[in-house]
Write a structure and sequence with these properties.
Elements: H1 17-39, H2 47-56, H3 79-86, E1 87-89, E2 108-117, H4 120-132, E3 137-144, E4 148-158, H5 161-173, E5 179-184
Antiparallel strand pairs: 1-5, 2-4, 2-5, 3-4
Helix pairs in contact: 1-2
């Protein structure tokens, strides 16, 4: 009897077409995300964020702008020219004895700056430390160009320099060297 030999043919596994479609879409989305991240690497936003925000915004139509008159350029403010107009740093007291009576100046107040900190928590800790000794301080937030946001811890305003010096001595006993400032009354922050 002749045996019939079965020949096993290698079956080819056929992959469905939808698998290739999904693979192509995945590669395309990945490529777009990588391009968005590369193109907008300085924005601080990810590729998907840019993609979705651009899709959600309505298409902007180009608007013809009429020629506007040229605006004068904004004046560039310089720290060293503005500060003397509003705040003046007073020199340190020379003598350790009781200061002599100073003449009263009209339109100015005096402030002690106990510190300036980049973080609000540090400024708040300084304010709390001063409050424990009975001194009332406030925190003033300022933005310094090129350096960022700072928080100043200030005491005052004091109407005369004698009260300023008394408080400065009290701070010095606590180990805090305060900056003595003369401020125009309308410019205090």
């Amino acid at each position: 009897m002749a045996r019939r030999r079965r020949s096993f043919s290698v079956r080819r596994f056929r992959k469905p077409g939808w698998l290739f479609l999904l693979l192509g879409i995945g590669i395309g989305v990945t490529g777009v995300m990588l391009w968005q991240m590369y193109a907008h690497r300085g924005d601080g936003r990810s590729g998907l964020t840019n993609l979705f925000t651009s899709l959600s915004r309505p298409a902007e139509k180009p608007v013809k702008k009429e020629a506007e008159p040229a605006k004068p350029p904004k004046p560039k403010f310089d720290f060293y020219t503005i500060l003397p107009e509003t705040e003046t740093v007073l020199p340190e007291r020379r003598s350790k004895t009781k200061p002599a009576k100073a003449k009263l100046e009209e339109g100015v107040s005096y402030i002690l700056q106990a510190g300036s900190f980049a973080g609000f928590e540090e400024a708040d800790n300084m304010k709390a430390r001063l409050a424990l000794t009975g001194l009332v301080a406030h925190i003033q937030k300022v933005i310094i160009e090129g350096k960022g946001e700072y928080h100043r811890v200030r005491l005052g305003p004091f109407e005369n320099i004698d009260k300023l010096d008394t408080t400065a001595v009290q701070l010095q006993k606590m180990g805090i060297k305060a900056l003595r400032l003369k401020v125009k009354k309308g410019e205090m922050g």
